[in-house]
Write a structure and sequence with these properties.
The protein has 135 residues and is an all-alpha fold. Keywords: Membrane, Transmembrane, Transmembrane helix.
């Protein structure tokens, strides 16, 4: 069962990376999902621009990736470490925990930061307009 999970992670992870490397979400002819918050309310959610960020990161366009979602760009090493730890635990059968994730103050700080970022990136004044992804 462990090898099936690992195989599925590799299959879907590889397909995800292949798709985002070869197809540009900025090209509106490609079949990418649009943000429901942006489509319905006209507001940028905290995740808006993340598909274009991933595409640009895979092409090593770091400055362009940062423009699409600065918060996710900054948090990406942390997210990658957590993901790597989870996959390593599955693959090697270890029980390594990222202890900071189990601290209440960290969870509140993270969610508070995400909510504040979601609010600030919708404000129409400089410098907050820099947080919104380019259209």
């Amino acid at each position: 069962m462990k090898y099936v999970k690992i195989g599925l992670i590799m299959l879907f992870g590889g397909a995800f990376l292949f798709y985002y490397y070869n197809f540009n979400p900025s090209d509106h002819s490609e079949p990418f999902l649009s943000c429901p918050s942006k489509s319905i309310f006209g507001l940028n959610c905290p995740g808006c621009g993340s598909q274009r960020l991933i595409h640009n990161l895979l092409h090593l366009n770091f400055s362009e990736a940062f423009r699409y979602n600065p918060l996710l760009f900054i948090l990406l090493p942390f997210v990658a470490y957590i993901s790597w730890t989870m996959v390593s635990n599955l693959f090697f059968g270890t029980k390594i925990r990222v202890k900071i994730l189990y601290q209440n103050w960290f969870v509140y700080l993270l969610f508070g930061t995400i909510i504040l970022y979601g609010i600030l990136r919708n404000l129409p004044w400089y410098p907050f307009t820099l947080l919104a992804p380019p259209d």
